[in-house]
User: Fold Polyribonucleotide nucleotidyltransferase from Niastella soli.
Amino acid sequence: MLSQPISVTFDIGGGREVSIETGRLARQADGAVTVRQGNCIILATVVANKEPKEGQSFFPLVVDYNEKFASAGRIPGSFFKREGRLSDYEVLISRLIDRALRPLFPEDYLCDVQVLITLISSDKEVMPDALACLAASAALAVSDVPIKEIISEVRIARIEGQFVVNPSRTELAKADMDFIIGATEKNLMMVEGEGDECAEEDLVKALEIAHEAIRQQIKAQQELRAKVGVAGKRDYTKPEQNTELQQKVADFAKDKIYQISRSASAKHDRSDAYDTLKEELIASLGEEADDTVKKQAKKYYDDLQWEVVRNMILDDRIRLDGRQLDQVRPLNMEIDILPSPHGSALFTRGETQSLTTVTLGTPLDELLIESAAVSDYTKFILHYNFPPFSTGEVKMMRAPGRREVGHGNLAMRSLKKMMPGNEYPYTVRIVSDILESNGSSSMATVCAGSLALMDAGVPFPKHVSGVAMGLITRGTDGKYAILTDILGDEDHLGDMDFKVTGTRDGICGVQMDIKIDGLAMSTMREALEQARKGRLHILDAMYECTPEARSEVKPHAPRMEKLFIDKEFIGAVIGPQGKIIQEIQRETGTTINIEEIGNYGEVSVFSPAKEGLEKAVAWIKGIVAVPEVGSVYEATVKGIKEFGAFVEFLPGKQGLLHISEISWKRLETMEGVLKEGDVVKVKLIGIDHKTGKFKLSRKILMPKPEGKRPENPA
Assistant:
């Protein structure tokens, strides 16, 4: 017999109701809910295997967010007319959910878990990404899958000075701060977003307001779980523990790990030393140790290394590479290092290096970004590549993964805050190739991107830099250490990964993941202030490298000029079936894009050569120019008649140069006087208001013979 659906409803402010329902859809999943606001409906399901795979040593969590085009009454634009692999937009939302959910599972839980979130009905004004994690958490809450806590996520935006939770799409367009925040009832878990050079204290305030809204959503999930009657969570097979072996590993390796850790060695030297010590440990177990014991010993060794390094940083206040806690690694940066790209920069910070290029293109190069609710074009593109050699590894080269998409998006949003507006006609593509990586290559991309944009002559008003922060805490005595410019190893063993980008005047982007309970706001403020100092230190070096953008693009970059014409002239520039604009492009070697905006036309002209640009611009100006009586023009003879010559004095505008207006001397015939293609100077002496015909004179520009009276004075 079918069970009756169970639901709860709550208000997120302003009379906007959100409902969570279970028991109607996808009932064979371990947990399934729908979340609805307005016409936006999201289905979330969770299924977990009962037992881990044999030999499993990590937690295999898969989170996929997908938007069905049918949810908005649309058919996909692909050749196959069906949804394919996740778009970058869907990947980014999947990452937001994954990062918040992953810490909820017990550390010894190794069963496969799949969380699928699907937009099945779209609302143009409701942003689904703000509701997706709520749906995922609710599906887990009504299941017996073992999670430690319930969470949720909200969007917090500052609009006209006021913070708004989960604003509409229209409201969000006016925001100067936009953050997605995930949290449990007590603790922040994840922060991602951007600001228009916002202050650190503004970010803290946004976090506090968002956390209150999240608590309301958690309360609704708890109510739903109680209505469903979830009695408890399932038991699961836990990895076997061998305390005797664990102690043996500690006795053999603890002091040696400490000595390696405080040697301030380079990344690969340190890694090789750790690996050698692990091999010595396994050898010390003797030949009687089987594969299971060796595998356990390796895990205990890794756990011991994690503990020793953390305690060294907390107690000795030194780091793996010997730096102070707030010290940025050595910086080196250059611009204009590649001859052919339109802009380039090489940014090196310690053992992390980004080679970044900028390419300038036309509006025809804009990127179409498509989701179920919105299809839009963007003129600013950033791609981040992470080849395996950057970490000294051998791996298959495949399409960009979720990590590359996420890192590139953070850098793109940070730099976009300083990009010129829509009046800038170029499409700009940045490509960051990471050549070395030991921590925070996304922040290196931000710095290298800022330098390369200025090298390309993009009117980029301020440098943007970024720094990755870390946090290590110890609950037994309350000690903590905030780390500036973290290494890859420090990211792995830390309790927080906190990336902050911005200018000298404020924050442009934030990405934060917190792995511990009870992060105090005072600690958050301290981390933000330390990040600000690190950011300013890097910015000082960037301004020394290049203080401002080039005044113009490089000689080999495409030239551009933008014209604004009256709407009525758009057709004249294009011509019948595009004849005129095609002729201009063919004759001048340019690319011309025309867009109608309101009551005027926006004409963008691009050319690889300055001469072609000038010729095309003059041509277009001639087409849209209004002939003025008394003005002098260079005219081209288009046709000869017995009574005169038809000449084109402006593009698309012709008039009759009567035989009597060619010369002061009386002409009996046009033979031998002018021929087609001749260029002559003429003066517009009148316009027939009935017919609109133009009256032109050549002789009026010639010296008048003695005693001769002008026949057509102007």
Notes: The mean pLDDT is 90. The first strand starts at residue 6 and ends at 11. DSSP finds 14 helices and 29 strands in the chain. Residues 64 and 116 are 5 Å apart (CA to CA).
